[in-house]
């Protein structure tokens, strides 16, 4: 900074003083604006979706089964009840936060993947309530491809896994067999299983569901052995023939905490959840969502339209709705 | 892009003056190479060491690290020196979950922010819908043309044409609606980032104290993976646009602030002197002299801020922000490659539109300073702006009456089946690449990782200190050591070494590819021209779109993450290399030619040595860019820190996500300081 001396007016002659004054003005200005923002307003409204009768926001997890639920529910809500439906893509965990905050009204398929959240929001805070079962039964397990199980039939019991660990070695598995783990978001206690059952495998996590599916398809096409976390109902269930590896039977609490888990997975009755306000004041839409219940076969049908026949979710839903009037009519609220 | 988001430090990096051959990049890849036990320096090694005590010290530290690694075999950070951060973070998560909708801090302050952000976004979506596709296309094209000068010059016409073409293509690809959502998010985010960036830039441009405080803050903001703060923001603001917008703003403010500050500080003293002597007050001086003089830098800052906003807005769809990113993630779930790619292409188109318009506006502003416009041209320009405004109002009010809200379906093409077939064909024909990636993982990634883990933690700290001191100042050494120690204390030593090994491998490949192509582009103008759009796509296409098919090709694992990093970071290195080679004084080249040097002699003896400064900047850029891809790597099987951040985000587990994010920041700061050539003291 330079200073000038030939300034005769009342202005301060040192530019750094100028800048100081400007800076102070800016600081003061932003402080005032900040204070105004805080004090001039009352409590902000905490919800912008919950409770409204003519618009429903549904949280949609990424997997195909969940997309099928949403596609059918959306179509029916819009056509039969005249309710506008906004679908937002978010994972299971995020969906609970959204229902708690009112950014989403309901989620149609929850796998109980985050028990801590169920406890916080459903039991403690009571901002999210159950909307009953979806009717679809989900199952998670460890799977190997059929072409491998045919050659080594005894692999279907976990006790024999170590015998074959060498077949599953990859560059990522640190000298042991590779276990392909799930999308971080999904319910899983595989690290515990591997540790506590002394399996010679390394848990190599998949970063996302699509990454895992792509990887498994690749290995399947190349007819390579692999051991993976897998679940049904699922997009690829008809394309890939997989055989489940039997793990020690699930008993309640055997997978908590994850570090101590030494058992397989339960069959889960997938559950719907909704924002507590919406459940109370949601009118027909809320009633419809509570009634929404279908079977694995129904969901599979829609999933197959989408993935095998490459139909858009809306078209797939429309086709199913046309064919299954008796199923969905029961979901409409009684007049 | 001519001014890609991540090239900030190019304009910022101070002139370097340093002794030969302890180059930062060299130091690092040497470290990586040495761990593998490969002799990394050619002949003349001893002579060079003797000539430079600093190089000698780095060499000794390296030797020490290798020997101790060989002796001890495992050098992980001792558990006794770890700090428990998990318990308090878990408590914090619980508290936030329980109180987010009830506590006064949220009710009276934070929720206002998030409601405001959401309202702003929704109003814009409504506005664009009200204007209809015709209104949006006409107004945006007109604005782009006006911003580029509103005349018949090539630049103005081209900018207008690009805007028109980009929007029309988005419509043709059936992506109109999500494109409008993304544009709405962008508008809110860019305005907020520009205003905040401007204020922070003013503060740090006018006050030295502010600058000292803010600079490291900006560094952290730029290096921190957005995923790491997406999580706490989501816990505070819930799901949807507000946390996405706030995350975007945090990510995009630094370039605007930095370049504003730079522009204010670089103002010509003579011009300021003149303004003072004319009796301008402080405010007058700022408004009439300093800010106008800083206009070019500020425009560049805005350009970079916009590009960063775009990359973030796509990522933020992971927490429910909607728009094009949302389409991409949804398409991935049904393995609909066609839809993912068309959405990805739309993102690239929007990027090109915004980049070219702001770049043209910047050039135009610059020219306007130097030449006096004719009265007629001025009137015309004002007229065009006025017309844009009028049309905007008209369309906002009556838009839907003039044309449909969304792009007419009859004018659209469905490319999805074709794309899917193309992808399938590639995966089938190129499946042999799986062997390459396997060899890469086994032959490069694994040894480097085991090497890094084998080096005792104290030896690695010493090595970092030595490199930091040799390359920069004692301050760089201190920063590096502190960062590394913090990583250890967080209990993430092994995961960080895993990540570090991927970064080294990625950096080596990036520099190799970048310099090779850069040299080629500098020598053959046609290649440079053809390359430009390719580089644009590489930088702006959301990585997820092409990474999933790549998994089908080479399998899930660290190699995919490294591949993503090279794709993302190489364009910056290519551009910097090309630029610095082209800036080599032509007379020197001429002299070399007249002495009868062959082409390769010219390149190796004249051009490359003279362009070294630029190349070093490229390496520094490359490090930070490669590291920023670590998280994406975590989503495609890269494991390590990136996976932990993704895990934390998807399970809303601060105790896992936040420390891993912090460790990435630490790695980033360390690598940045170690590869940043020494600053000239008191230079700025």
TrEMBL record, chain A:
InterPro entries: ABC_Gly_betaine_transp_sub-bd
Gene3D superfamilies: Glycine betaine-binding periplasmic protein, domain 2, Periplasmic binding protein-like II
Region (Disordered): 1-20
Ranges of residues in domain ABC-type glycine betaine transport system substrate-binding: 54-323
Domain of life, per lineage: Bacteria
SUPFAM superfamilies in alphabetical order: Periplasmic binding protein-like II (SSF53850)
Compositionally biased tracts (Polar residues): 1-16
Record-given protein name: ABC transporter substrate-binding protein
Naturally occurring in which organism (per UniProt): Streptomyces solicavernae
From TrEMBL, chain B:
Residue ranges of coiled coil: none
Localization per record: Cell membrane; Membrane
Domain of life: Bacteria
Occurrences of domain ABC transmembrane type-1 (ranges): 179-358, 496-675
Membrane topology: Multi-pass membrane protein
Family per similarity comment: Belongs to the binding-protein-dependent transport system permease family.
Protein name: ABC transporter permease subunit
The organism of origin for this protein: Streptomyces solicavernae
Lineage: Bacteria, Bacillati, Actinomycetota, Actinomycetes, Kitasatosporales
């Amino acid at each position: 900074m330079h200073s000038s001396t030939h300034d005769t007016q009342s202005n301060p002659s040192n530019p750094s003083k100028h800048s100081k004054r400007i800076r102070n003005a800016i600081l003061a200005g932003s402080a005032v604006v900040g204070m105004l923002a805080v004090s001039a307003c009352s409590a902000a409204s905490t919800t912008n979706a919950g409770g409204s009768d003519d618009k429903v926001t549904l949280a949609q997890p990424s997997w195909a089964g969940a997309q099928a639920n949403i596609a059918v529910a959306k179509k029916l809500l819009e056509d039969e009840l005249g309710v506008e439906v906004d679908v937002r893509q978010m994972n299971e965990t995020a969906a609970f936060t959204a229902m708690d905050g009112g950014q989403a009204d309901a989620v149609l398929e929850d796998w109980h993947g985050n028990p801590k959240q169920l406890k916080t929001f459903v039991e403690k805070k009571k901002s999210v309530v159950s909307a009953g079962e979806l009717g679809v039964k989900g199952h998670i397990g460890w799977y190997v491809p059929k072409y491998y199980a045919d050659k080594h039939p005894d692999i279907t019991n976990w006790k024999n896994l170590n015998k074959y660990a060498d077949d599953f070695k990859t560059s990522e598995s640190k000298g042991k067999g590779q276990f392909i783990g799930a999308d971080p978001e999904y319910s899983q206690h595989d690290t515990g299983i591997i540790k506590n059952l002394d399996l010679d495998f390394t848990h190599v996590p998949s970063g996302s569901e699509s990454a895992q599916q792509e990887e498994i398809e690749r290995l399947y096409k190349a007819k390579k052995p692999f051991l993976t976390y897998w679940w049904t109902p699922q997009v690829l269930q008809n394309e890939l023939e997989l055989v489940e590896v039997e793990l020690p039977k699930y008993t309640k609490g055997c997978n908590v905490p994850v570090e101590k888990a030494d058992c397989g997975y339960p069959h889960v009755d997938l559950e719907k959840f909704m924002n507590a306000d919406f459940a109370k004041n949601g009118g027909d839409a809320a009633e419809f969502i509570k009634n929404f219940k279908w079977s694995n076969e129904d969901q599979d049908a829609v999933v197959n339209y989408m993935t095998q026949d490459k139909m858009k979710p809306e078209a797939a839903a429309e086709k199913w709705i046309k064919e299954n009037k008796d199923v969905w009519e029961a979901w409409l609220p009684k007049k | 892009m001519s001014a890609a988001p991540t090239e900030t430090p190019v304009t910022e990096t101070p002139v370097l003056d340093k002794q030969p051959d302890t180059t930062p990049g060299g130091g690092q890849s040497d470290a990586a190479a040495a761990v593998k036990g490969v002799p990394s320096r050619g002949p003349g090694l001893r002579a060079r060491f003797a000539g430079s005590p600093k190089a000698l010290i780095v060499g000794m530290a390296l030797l020490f690290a290798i020997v101790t690694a060989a002796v001890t075999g495992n050098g992980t950070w001792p558990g006794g020196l770890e700090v428990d951060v998990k318990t308090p973070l878990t408590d914090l998560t619980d508290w936030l979950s329980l109180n987010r909708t009830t506590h006064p801090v949220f009710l009276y302050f934070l929720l206002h922010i998030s409601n405001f952000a959401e309202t702003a976004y929704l109003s814009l979506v409504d506005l664009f819908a009200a204007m209809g596709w015709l209104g949006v296309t006409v107004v945006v094209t007109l604005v782009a043309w006006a911003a580029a000068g509103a005349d018949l010059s090539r630049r103005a016409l081209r900018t207008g044409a690009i805007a028109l073409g980009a929007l029309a293509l988005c419509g043709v690809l059936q992506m109109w609606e999500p494109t409008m959502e993304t544009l709405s998010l962008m508008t809110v985010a860019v305005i907020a980032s520009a205003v905040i960036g401007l204020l922070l830039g003013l503060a740090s441009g006018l006050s030295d104290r502010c600058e000292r405080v803010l600079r490291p803050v900006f560094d952290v903001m730029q290096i921190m993976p957005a995923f790491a703060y997406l999580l706490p923001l989501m816990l505070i603001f819930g799901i949807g646009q507000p946390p996405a917008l706030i995350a975007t703003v945090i990510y995009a403010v630094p370039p605007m602030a930095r370049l504003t500050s730079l522009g204010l500080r670089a103002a010509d003293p003579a011009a300021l002197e003149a303004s003072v002597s004319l009796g301008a007050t402080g405010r007058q001086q700022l408004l009439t002299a300093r800010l106008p003089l800083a206009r070019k830098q500020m425009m560049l800052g805005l350009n970079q801020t916009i590009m960063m906003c775009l990359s973030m807005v796509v990522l933020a769809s992971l927490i429910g922000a909607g728009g094009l990113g949302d389409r991409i993630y949804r398409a991935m779930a049904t393995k609909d490659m066609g839809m993912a790619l068309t959405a990805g292409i739309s993102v690239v188109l929007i990027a090109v539109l915004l980049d070219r318009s702001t770049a043209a506006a910047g050039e135009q502003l610059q020219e306007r300073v130097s030449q006096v416009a004719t009265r007629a041209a001025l009137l015309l320009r004002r007229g065009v702006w006025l017309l844009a405004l009028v049309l905007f109002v008209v369309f906002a009010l009556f838009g839907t009456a003039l044309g449909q809200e969304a792009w007419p379906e009859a004018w659209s093409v469905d490319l999805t089946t074709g794309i899917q077939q193309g992808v399938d064909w590639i995966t089938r024909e190129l499946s042999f690449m799986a062997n390459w990636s396997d060899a890469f993982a086994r032959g490069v990634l694994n040894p480097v990782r085991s090497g890094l883990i084998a080096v005792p933690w104290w030896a690695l700290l010493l090595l970092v200190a030595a490199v930091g001191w040799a390359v920069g100042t004692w301050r760089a050494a201190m920063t590096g050591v502190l960062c590394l120690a913090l990583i250890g204390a967080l209990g993430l030593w092994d995961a960080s070494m895993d990540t570090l090994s991927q970064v080294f491998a990625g950096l080596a490949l990036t520099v190799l590819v970048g310099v090779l192509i850069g040299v080629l582009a500098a020598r053959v103008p046609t290649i440079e021209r053809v390359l430009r759009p390719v580089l644009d796509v590489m930088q702006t296409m959301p990585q997820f779109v092409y990474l999933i098919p790549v998994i089908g090709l080479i399998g899930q694992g660290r190699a995919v993450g490294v591949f993503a990093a090279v794709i993302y970071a190489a364009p910056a290195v290519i551009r910097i290399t090309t630029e610095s080679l082209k800036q080599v004084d032509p007379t020197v080249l001429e002299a070399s030619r007249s002495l009868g040097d062959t082409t390769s002699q010219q390149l190796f003896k004249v051009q490359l040595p003279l362009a070294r400064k630029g190349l070093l900047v490229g390496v520094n850029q490359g490090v930070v860019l490669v590291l920023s891809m670590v998280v994406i790597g975590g989503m495609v099987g890269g494991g390590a820190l990136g996976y932990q951040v993704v895990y934390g985000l998807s399970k809303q587990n601060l105790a896992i996500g936040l420390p891993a994010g912090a460790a990435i920041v630490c790695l980033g700061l360390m690598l940045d300081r170690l590869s940043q050539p020494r600053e000239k003291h008191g230079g700025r």
